[in-house]
Specification:
This protein is an alpha+beta fold and 711 residues long. It has 22 helices and 25 strands. Helix 10 (364-373) runs antiparallel to helix 12 and helix 21 (640-651) runs antiparallel to helix 22 (655-672).
């Protein structure tokens, strides 16, 4: 299904983002194999599983709703819906929609002139758990609820459903005929998941809380119980397809920061984890091999040795071979050795957002200068290479590597170039200069490089540790146990150190200094090596950008990337003031309201970018009250041409032509320099040994009935 509005705003600090349904049509490159690290699944024949057992799968929180179209739906909602409700189309590892034969015998566009008509032929065996066959009344109820004409339904979106003119029975049994008022290229995104008419036909049931359960479903599993901390699914006795190889699945609410301990305590079988936990698991692999290389992997990972411990628990020489591990730490290591690490590139990407509504970044030349100062390859390498994942930067806002139609359009801005960036700044009136009368006019509020004397520098206000890789986090005790377990807190080839609880005054760790890295933001004048240019000024004022980052534990994932960007900008004379805000308010009070100059957050990728990406990049429009309607374009940067290209792509029924229009839109988005994609996020999954047909799914839709435990 397309991304709902609530899930659209999933920030990197907010947790896991899931693969979502892809572009239609075919091209010459559509039939190739998935790219490296597209997925990492422990594949095994169904017959090789026990055919019973309970899977405990971690989710961030117990869902507040089981309606995937509700404004309060989350990733847990979507996982559960995928197991208990019809998905007319699923996704393969490249994010392409595949007809699901359990529900659909066929689905075809039977007419495009004068109206687009799609005829769905349902599998005659498909029935709801109450025994009623899936039918046209379910399609009609879902269309009426989601088309946006009834305020009683608090829907997150109506995209696609608002283009439908009517839904009626087809000419033959088990057929549903959908006629569109306007052509819609992403018609495959509709009616997935499909809810029974008892849910969609009643606003009260539509909006019911998760604790009410889901009385009727039509998947290999059905909802048995919803508690404060978990949702339990059991086999659906009326399921007509391949029998589920698990007796039950329990989606257990375990916050990200508690996942490692839950794994150690034996409370979970499958969980997405942060890089720190991933390294601990990888270090326990037999023969010091990295995850993904064990038997049954359909996407072997990259071998690698566990990193050495840091943190002072192991002394040089380790007299007599003593490891310094306590019994408790050895027990933790043994517990984690019962898991393997599965890793893939997540269908989600981290971007640098540039607020284009006010201040220096309202000038496109300044935005482009910032973009030319960013070494995206270095950032991607720092985050992905330590995890053994491909470390090329992402070159597209709308498609991930491997999706049909993917092209790198970053050339619309150009490669990193300090001189070009400084030239753009000069064209915009921002030039490096002396401190004469202009500095005096500032009443001594800044020093000769533009830093306020009366306020701490960016790094002085930032007390978070420069983490090893993006995603390394944990309490001091957790960090200590990681060290004792033989895991590292350094970026390896990237070169930054961790393992401390606060920054030094200069904001960089000693190992980074020894590697010759540039000083951190605000550190000029204290280091013997000045890696940055003198701050640029306009009418005597220094160019200072407010860089807002979340302060909660999950926000620690952004520290390394944010600091690296700050150092890159100093090299062209641009200062940053890093402001840490609570994770709870980061999106609500800062990103959504535009209270930032620079920010880092992440968007989930979509299989239907013509539909799902338009609100993110639509040109903001003035409202009647004088405010700005931004939809989900939190950078506030957009153009009429970008909007027109999206509109044309939505109405183009030829898949190749639609993709071409999406591609042109992406090139324009790059040129506008409102958001700079950096890299696809790493998807790191801890999986109990013996569990099969699960792992790092990437874009691929899980086939829940095939997941099981090896005999």
């Amino acid at each position: 299904m397309p991304i709902t509005k609530g899930r659209r705003a999933m920030l990197l600090a907010a947790g896991v983002m899931l693969p979502l349904p892809v572009l239609t049509g075919c091209s010459s490159d559509d039939d190739g194999p998935p790219p490296p690290a597209a997925w990492d699944i422990a594949a095994a024949p169904r017959a090789g599983t026990t055919g019973t057992g309970t899977l405990r799968w971690a989710v961030d929180a117990t869902p507040t709703t089981l309606n995937a179209f509700s404004k309060t739906a989350d990733t847990g909602t979507e996982r559960i819906a995928g197991a208990v409700l019809p998905s007319l189309y699923t996704l393969d590892a490249r994010g392409r929609p595949q007809r699901n034969g359990d529900y659909l015998a066929s689905a075809d566009v039977t007419s495009s002139d004068p109206k687009q008509v799609v005829v769905y032929k349902l599998n005659p065996k498909a029935v709801w758990s109450d025994g009623r066959p899936l039918g046209v009344e379910d399609f009609q109820a879902q269309w009426r609820a989601l088309r946006g004409t009834d305020d009683k339904y608090g829907t997150a979106r109506n995209a696609g459903y608002d283009r439908i003119a009517k839904v009626e029975p087809g000419d033959k049994a088990h057929e549903v005929k959908v006629t569109f008022a306007k052509p819609y290229t992403d018609w495959r995104s509709l009616f997935t998941p499909l809810y029974p008419k008892s849910v969609m036909g009643n606003p009260a049931v539509f909006s019911a809380v998760a604790s009410k359960g889901l009385a009727v479903g039509a998947g290999p599993f059905m909802v048995r119980q919803v508690s404060d901390n978990s949702v339990t699914l059991v086999r659906n006795p009326r399921w007509w397809g391949d029998r589920a190889r698990l007796s039950r699945m329990v989606f257990q609410a375990v916050p990200a920061e508690k996942r490692a301990q839950a794994l150690i305590a034996g409370q979970l079988d499958l969980a997405e984890v942060d890089p720190a936990t991933a390294r601990r698991i990888r270090a326990t692999a037999p023969g010091k091999q990295a995850a993904g290389a064990d038997q049954g992997s359909s996407a072997p990972g990259k071998a690698g040795a566990p990193e050495p411990s840091t943190g002072g628990r192991q002394t040089a020489g380790a007299q007599g071979g003593a490891t310094g591990d306590t019994d408790k730490n050895r027990s933790r290591t043994r517990a984690l050795s019962g898991f393997t690490l599965r890793k893939a590139l997540d269908p989600a990407y981290t971007q640098l957002a540039l607020n284009g509504t006010k201040g220096p970044l309202a000038d496109e030349r300044v935005r482009r200068a910032v973009a030319r100062a960013i070494d995206r390859k270095a950032l991607a390498k720092a985050v992905l290479k330590p995890m053994g994942l491909p470390s090329e930067p992402l070159g597209n806002h709308l498609l991930m590597v491997g999706q049909p139609g993917y092209k790198d359009h970053s050339g619309a801005l150009g490669d990193p170039d300090k001189n070009a960036a400084q030239s753009l700044l000069a064209d915009a009136g921002w030039r490096a200069g002396g401190t004469g009368s202009r500095q005096k006019a500032l009443d001594g509020k800044t020093d000769d490089r533009g830093r306020p004397h009366s306020a701490p520098t960016a790094t002085e206000t930032d007390t978070a540790t420069d983490t090893a890789t993006e995603g390394t986090s944990g309490t001091p005790s957790e960090t200590a146990s990681q060290s004792a377990s033989g895991t590292a807190s350094s970026e390896g080839s990237a070169g930054t150190a961790s393992g401390t609880t606060s920054d030094t005054a200069s904001g960089t760790a000693s190992s980074e200094r020894s590697a010759g890295a540039a000083p951190a933001a605000g550190d000029a004048g204290r280091s013997g090596r000045l890696g940055e240019a003198a701050v640029v000024r306009k009418k005597g004022r220094p160019l200072v950008l407010r860089f807002v980052l979340p302060e909660d534990q999950a926000g620690a994932q952004l520290s390394t990337v944010g600091r690296r960007i700050a150092r890159m900008l100093e090299k062209i004379g641009v200062r940053t003031e890093i402001t840490k805000v609570s994770g709870e308010s980061y999106f609500r009070d800062h990103i959504a309201t535009g209270d930032y100059d620079l920010a880092l957050y992440s968007w989930p990728a979509s299989a239907y970018p013509a539909t799902d990406a338009r609100p993110i990049y639509a040109k903001p429009q003035p409202a009647a009250d004088g405010s700005l309607v931004v939809e989900q374009n939190y950078t506030r940067v957009g153009t009429d041409q970008i909007d027109q290209l999206f509109d044309q792509a939505l109405s183009e029924l030829d898949g190749g032509a639609s993709r071409s229009l999406v591609s042109r839109a992406d090139a324009r988005i790059w040129a506008a320099a409102g958001s700079i994609p950096l890299y696809q996020r790493p998807q790191l999954i801890a999986m109990r040994k013996g569990l099969v047909n699960a792992g790092a799914f990437g874009f691929a839709t899980p086939r829940y009935q095939d997941i099981g435990f090896r005999r």
